[in-house]
Amino acid sequence: MRTRLHDRLERTRQEGRAALIGYLPAGFPTVADSVSVIEAMVAGGCDVVEVGLPYSDPTMDGPTIQRAAGVALEAGTTPTDVLRVAEATAETGAAALVMSYWNPVDHYGVARFATDLAATGASGMITPDLLPEEAGAWIEASDAAGLDRVFLVAPSSTDVRLKTTTNACRGFVYAASLMGVTGTRAQVAGTAQQLVSRTRAAREPGADPLPVCVGLGISTGDQAAEVAGYADGVIVGAGFCQRVLDAVDMASARSAVRAFAEELAQGVRRTD
Questions:
Q1: What is the total count of domains within the chain?
Q2: Of these four, 46, 210, 212, 239, which has the most CB atoms within 10 Å of its CB?
């Protein structure tokens, strides 16, 4: 089984660079506007886009993404809207993923959500609060629908946890660079590179290599270049959301988002 995510990550590997992965909540600030912002992200150089499913209890998200998701929730964004945005994202040519806490998916119906997500052309889903040991229903449904599934590892993950998680993932492994919530930071956590090395080493002997992508705290082209030196993908979310929050209108938001994506895209291609 190959998804567009597999193809995109393989292409960036062949180009000798890390993939640029952007995140935006669906429905932020409206469903239509979130599509236009994602189009700007892709035009600026995002290879993969994570479409967030806004949730009322975002335990891993910092204040910026919480604000963005809150705007989307106040606008009445539903899981069906999220699927519409995922479909529009796939239509840009980028690899599309949904990122969602588990409760909304469980409420929607796991098998139904997998079937509906696959129908959008998206590649799969990231589930930040779901452990592989508790993901039996999602593993079964994602297998049946041909979807990738991405679980998270963190600096605190034991070697056993890293092995369990990497072997349950398909598409890539999401390496959270630090213990904490999402948000921009002055520098990337020093634990990130070690976590990438440990995660790669945890893969079962003889198994195909699985990309490891790093998120949490990346907010500049220089930081993107730093992470791209040891990871297969660079994940940025709060920086995109902040530019929309700061913009005076949607035209300004799209312009700022595209310029930021271009800065990050140059970073992941830097060879110095």
A1: 1
A2: 46
